[in-house]
Amino acid sequence: xxxxxxxxxxxxxxxxxxxxxxxxxxxxxxxxxxxxxxxxxxxxxxxxxxxxxxxxxxxxxxxxxxxxxxxxxxxxxxxxxxxxxxxxxxxxxxxxxxxxxxxxxxxxxxxxxxxxxxxxxxxxxxxxx
Length: 129
Prior knowledge:
Number of domains: 2
């Protein structure tokens, strides 16, 4: 039969990280200083003062121009830009224009999708209590 000490040893690794899934429920309640009924109002208030609110951090606003230019920061985009410069030096303006056009359209689409995703995430986080 396993003793409580055996269970405690198996519940932690060499770095001291707790394997919560291997602990008995009573031990988890004891370690977290709680009960099946949950935290008392006083305990919840003390923990929120000590650890902060259980809330995702809000992302600071990024300059829209920098957000757009970030879509050009990619190895494949650099290769295409070099190819565009080479075709321009060769005098092939049609291919140069097509390459720059494709890069610009790609950046615009990426920028629009990123903004839509950020709005969706804000909407979801506003629905959470």
